[in-house]
Every structure is written in structure tokens, then in C-alpha cells.
Design goal:
heterodimer, A: mainly alpha, 69% helix, flat, B: mainly alpha, two-stranded antiparallel sheet, 14 helices
């Protein structure tokens, strides 16, 4: 939706700094040099591990832990070539495809179920709304571990362990209260007159939801998409509990196969694999970081 | 411009037209009967839209919670029927030295990592508070670790960086601190994970930044006129005004810290080593439930975790009266 819409931009509007004359701007730039230097110095520390893994993945195994050099003097590609043999006889592509299936499936589920629930909470006045909203909010604080064991038992009895159903079902049933909350906040910011006018025109809730509210919620939907994708990609505990067959492992569990054979650690392969596993997340991050940071601000989401 | 119910409007134009109509349309007149009918329709629509959530709530949240409470009073190994044992699991917990260790490790982690992480987040947020060029870049770059920190990859990287003779060890030795590899040292292993938590300060930082943006510039100017130095301005203007944000971050980070799993699993080799020094509560719960299949005991542990987190949340909410200032109750602070 274009910005020319007669609707207040919802979400965090970035205040544009007022135009200042060039001389004043120069003065300000000079004064802010110190914070810049400090920021860059801190960034070097913060981003060090990320850069380190890039360098390490091109080092021979024995140089990875001991050497202080960030980048090898003679970079090798052997670590990556070794990965083409796969991990435990499973080609890497299997892990990546599995992760992709899980991530895309989760995104679809979250967008579908959470937007429906959020619309109900934000725009429909039904009996019991306050109580249910309270329930939804309180699940934000609920440690997942309380649900872990009974859920596992049920899925085990239904013989759904070692399938993706336990990992995906919750996404289609709006279990991620974070996203419901994020979308509710966003939808509440949309002017009420919109639905009232649409209703006078004879639109029912499904129509208002689909044609008016959902398109206006695009920023919230994008934020949810990115977070769901990255969190699912990184998720370790869920697959660790529910998946047994290495053929079904996502990337995170594929890497566990590496750690398990700890005695003869293949550090080179591990680092190359770590980098490959991070790559989609980093690319996603680079492409969408603006939405991500803003989404995190509005909702208090945690990465 | 008229249209019927069925006319397929492109989403953009439907919204636009609806908005234009808003100011001009006649106010809806409703009789009592109509209102009631409408109320019923609203209820139905509400429940329909909520049906996935309601299903999820019943099947995946409330149901399992009750089941887990029941199981916590039983002995259950997945294969034989649960056997009611009353409070035995809870009693056993208090006599289990490894459980006590896991509580200690987790509390130590929460108490050290949370304040450090928040301090780092606030510090960097203050550094970035003034609008200036490159802000978007810095914000994003500092945020990146928050996204990837919980991944297995970073866990593996951390283990390598903090090993004996590795980067951190050697760098610290340059400063005369000869600790050795943190990962293998029972006294220091937990600080590997503390460092990992602090490294992910980006998420609370972004929230602090949003809070700092709300502080009116005039207050700083007024304080400056009154001769307040930088520290005084921070203490008397910034801190009270962002206290709600600070509280929010403190609450979320604390709850978050109690549940750390992936990084603990990877860094500690999945067993909480060395010598149980990183036996986090969640790791021990996983071990009991999914390695030993003591589902009853693990359920009891889960409930203790929930009680613990609930208690901490409660205490935090109680103390907030003392230090959290909400708008309209003397924003200047004391």
C-alpha cells in the first residue's frame, strides 16, 4: 500500500530531523565524531565472532582454535569441499530443504492463524473478549517447558513423533502469542472509521478483514514473517525432541551430528557448516533489517 | 459511486473509499432488536475468527498444562500407565543434589547475565540516542547478534572462541589475566554463556532506544540550565523517564534467561558439563524427560520452573511501585 493513503502511518514513525544549514550540520558532524568512533569500536567487538567464523571456515582444522589471526594467510576451501560429502552420509541439501519446509510452513501458519485471532481481538466486540485477551497475554509469560512433556506424550500416542506435525501444528493454531499481540497492537492503530464505513457499504467481517485491515497491516505481517522464519530456522529444541530420523533433520540438528562426535572434532567442517547455516539468516537480516528493528521496537519482541 | 456487496474491489481502493465515506455517511440508527441481532452476529464472528486460537489454547496450552500438573504427581515412563505418587516427585527434587545444582546454575546465570545485558543495552542505546547519520546502520548491526545468538552455529563458535589457548584465552593473557579456557573450567564455563547472553544486547537496546526517543529534549535543556552535569541529567531525567521501558526489559530478559536452552546445550556438550557447572534447569529437565523418560519428575520440574518464574514476575511487579514512574505522576522524578 502506498504512503499516500489518507491513513496515519501506524507503527513507529521515524521522526525526520529538520533541515539545518550546512555550516551547522558540519558543526554537528564534528561534535558527533566521538560517538561515531565509540560506536565503531564497539561494533568491532560485537561483530567479531561473526567475522571470526567466516575466517575460521577457510582455515585448516588445526589452526582454528589456536591461531589468533582472524583470516588465514592461505585460505583453503577444503572445509566446504568436505561438506559436499554431507554429514553422516546425508547430503547437506537435505538439511537445508527440511529447514526450508519447516520455516515456510511456519510462516504460513503464523500469518494465517495469528492475523485471524488478532483481528478478532482488535476489531470485533464479542462476549468474553477481555477474558480471552487476558489469557492470550498471560501465555506470553508462560515457560514452554510446562507444555513440553504432555504435548510430547500426546504426539507420541498419536504416532506423530518423527513427523513435522508437532513442529507445525501450533503455528496454525495461533500458539505464538507474540505475533497475535504484535498484530493486535498494529490493528488497534488503524482508524475505527474504516470498518464502520465499510460496514455501511455492506461489508461483513471477512471482507473488512481481508480487503481493508490485512493490506494495511503489511508492516506487521512482514515483521512476523521475518521473525518466524529466523526463529524456526534457528529452532533446536523442538526438532531435538520430536525428530529421530536424521533424514528429516533441519540444519540445526544436522549440526548436532557434528558436535556429537566430539572426540575427533572436525573443526574445519564445523565452522564451514556454521557459516552456511547462518547464511540464510544473515541474508534475511540484511534484506529486511529495517522492518526487523522497527518490529522489535513496537512489540518488544525478542530475537 | 455505488457498489454492491459482491463487487470485487481491489484492496487499496476499498480501503480508500471506505475511508472517504466515513465522514459523510449517515450515523447508523439501531433499534433494540437490531442491536441484539448485531451483538449475536458479532459474537459469532468473533468466535469464528478466534477458532484456530481457541483450539490451540485448549489443545496445546490449557490441556497440556492440566496434564502436566497431573503428571507431576505421578511416575510415568511413556510405556506403563502413570502411577499416582502424590508429592513424591517434589520431595525427590528437594533431595536431588543435581536439581539443586541446576537451580543454582540458573539463578547465578539470571542474576549475572540479566543486569549486564541490560547495562550494555542501555549504554549503547544512550550512545545512539541522538539522531545522527548512520544511526540505522548501527542499530541494525548491534541488533544482529540478538537474532543469531540462539542458533547452534553461534554455540559452536562460542565453544571454539572460549577454548583453552583460543582467542579469548590468549587475548586475556595479554592483559595479565591467566584464566585458561573458559569452556573446560568448571569455575568459568558459565561465564561463557553469560558472555553469549550479554552479546545479544541488541533486542533490549532497540526497546531502550524507542524509550529514549520519548524523553522531551526540553527537560535536558532545563536541567542543563540548572547546572546539572551529564551524570546528574542521566540520573534525574533519563532514568526516571525510561523506567517503564527499563521495567519491561528487565521483566522480559529475566523470564528469557530462566529458559535458556540451545546455547547451553551446545556449549556444554548437551550434558551441562564440565562437572555440572553449566547444568541449566532446562538442560536437566530435558535430561530427565527425554533421556531418562521420567516424565512425572520432569513435569514436576516444569511446574517448579513456572512457579519460580511466576514468583520472580510477581516480585518485580511489586517493586515497580518504588522505582517505575508512569506518565502523569511527576515525570521529573526525585
Amino acid at each position: 500500500m502506498s504512503r499516500t493513503e489518507p491513513v496515519e502511518p501506524v507503527g513507529p514513525a521515524r521522526p525526520r530531523p529538520p533541515r539545518v544549514p550546512a555550516s551547522a550540520r558540519r558543526r554537528r558532524t564534528a561534535r558527533s565524531l566521538l560517538p561515531h568512533l565509540l560506536s565503531v569500536a564497539l561494533l568491532v567487538v560485537v561483530l567479531y565472532p561473526v567475522v571470526w567464523v567466516i575466517g575460521a571456515s577457510f582455515k585448516p582444522g588445526q589452526d582454528i582454535v589456536g591461531s589468533l589471526e582472524l583470516f588465514p594467510t592461505e585460505p583453503i576451501t577444503g572445509n566446504f569441499r568436505r561438506l559436499t560429502e554431507g554429514i553422516a552420509d546425508i547430503p547437506l541439501s537435505t538439511f537445508f530443504v527440511n529447514s526450508l519446509i519447516l520455516a515456510v510452513g511456519s510462516v504460513g501458519g503464523v500469518l494465517f492463524s495469528c492475523s485471524l485471532a488478532a483481528y478478532a481481538f482488535a476489531r470485533i466486540r464479542f462476549a468474553g473478549r477481555a477474558v480471552m485477551f487476558g489469557l492470550m497475554i498471560s501465555t506470553l509469560l508462560l515457560p514452554v517447558h510446562v507444555l513440553l512433556i504432555p504435548q510430547y506424550i500426546v504426539f507420541q500416542k498419536l504416532e506423530l513423533v518423527d513427523t513435522y506435525v508437532p513442529l507445525l501444528l501450533g503455528k496454525y493454531l495461533a500458539v505464538d502469542a507474540f505475533f497475535v499481540f504484535l498484530m493486535v497492537q498494529f490493528m488497534r492503530g488503524l482508524p475505527r472509521e474504516l470498518d464502520e464505513a465499510a460496514r455501511l457499504d455492506g461489508c461483513g467481517h471477512p471482507r473488512i478483514f481481508w480487503s481493508i485491515v490485512l493490506p494495511l497491516c503489511r508492516p506487521a505481517l512482514i515483521t512476523s514473517t521475518i521473525f518466524t522464519f529466523i526463529w524456526t530456522w534457528n529452532d533446536f529444541m523442538g526438532p531435538l525432541i520430536y525428530l529421530n530420523d536424521p533424514q528429516k533433520y533441519p540444519v540445526a540438528l544436522g549440526m548436532k551430528l557434528f558436535i556429537d562426535q566430539d572426540t575427533l572434532a572436525d573443526y574445519g567442517g564445523m565452522m564451514a557448516m556454521s557459516l552456511l547455516a547462518l547464511l540464510p539468516v544473515l541474508l534475511f537480516f540484511l534484506a529486511f533489517q529495517r522492518f526487523l528493528v522497527e518490529g522489535a521496537t513496537t512489540s518488544g519482541l525478542k530475537g | 459511486m455505488t457498489h454492491t456487496k459482491t463487487s470485487p474491489l481491489p484492496p487499496g481502493s476499498a480501503a480508500r473509499r471506505a475511508f472517504r465515506r466515513a465522514g459523510t455517511g449517515p450515523p447508523p440508527v439501531a433499534t433494540a432488536g437490531e442491536a441484539r441481532r448485531r451483538g449475536r452476529r458479532e459474537n459469532l464472528a468473533g468466535y469464528l475468527f478466534l477458532s484456530p486460537w481457541i483450539l490451540g489454547m485448549l489443545l496445546l496450552t490449557l490441556g497440556p498444562m492440566l496434564a502436566s500438573l497431573y503428571l507431576s504427581f505421578t511416575e510415568y515412563d511413556l510405556f506403563n500407565a502413570p502411577r499416582w505418587t502424590g508429592f513424591d516427585n517434589y520431595r525427590a527434587m528437594f533431595e536431588d543434589p543435581r536439581w539443586a545444582t541446576s537451580v543454582g546454575v540458573t539463578l547465578q546465570y539470571v542474576l549475572i547475565a540479566t543486569p549486564l545485558k541490560l547495562a550494555a543495552a542501555l549504554g549503547v542505546a544512550l550512545l545512539l540516542a541522538r539522531p545522527r547519520r548512520g544511526l540505522g546502520f548501527y542499530r541494525s548491526a548491534f541488533y544482529a547478534p540478538s537474532l543469531i545468538g540462539a542458533s547452534v552455529s553461534i554455540g559452536i563458535v562460542w565453544r571454539a572462541i572460549f577454548q583453552d589457548e583460543a582467542v579469548v584465552d590468549r587475548s586475556l593473557r595479554l592483559f595479565g589475566a591467566d584464566i585458561g579456557g573458559w569452556v573446560g573450567d568448571p569455575d568459568w564455563a558459565i561465564y561463557t554463556l553469560v558472555a553469549l547472553a550479554v552479546w545479544q544486547f541488541g533486542a533490549p537496546m532497540v526497546i531502550f532506544l524507542a524509550g529514549l526517543k520519548q524523553v522531551p529534549r526540553e527537560l535536558y535543556e532545563a536541567a542543563e540550565v540548572d547546572g546539572a552535569g551529564a551524570w546528574r541529567r542521566f540520573r534525574s531525567v533519563t532514568l526516571p523517564l525510561i523506567s517503564p521501558v527499563l521495567f519491561f526489559n528487565l521483566l522480559l530478559e529475566t523470564i528469557h534467561s530462566f529458559q535458556v536452552f540451545t546455547s547451553a546445550y551446545v556449549v556444554s556438550n548437551g550434558r551441562g558439563g564440565p562437572a555440572d557447572s553449566t547444568l541449566f534447569y532446562t538442560l536437566y529437565l530435558y535430561e530427565k524427560g527425554f533421556r531418562e523418560f521420567r516424565m512425572g519428575y520432569a513435569s514436576a520440574m516444569a511446574w517448579m520452573l513456572m512457579l519460580g518464574v511466576g514468583l520472580v514476575t510477581f516480585v518485580l511487579f511489586r517493586t515497580q511501585r518504588g522505582w517505575v514512574h508512569y506518565e502523569g505522576e511527576g515525570a521529573g522524578g526525585r
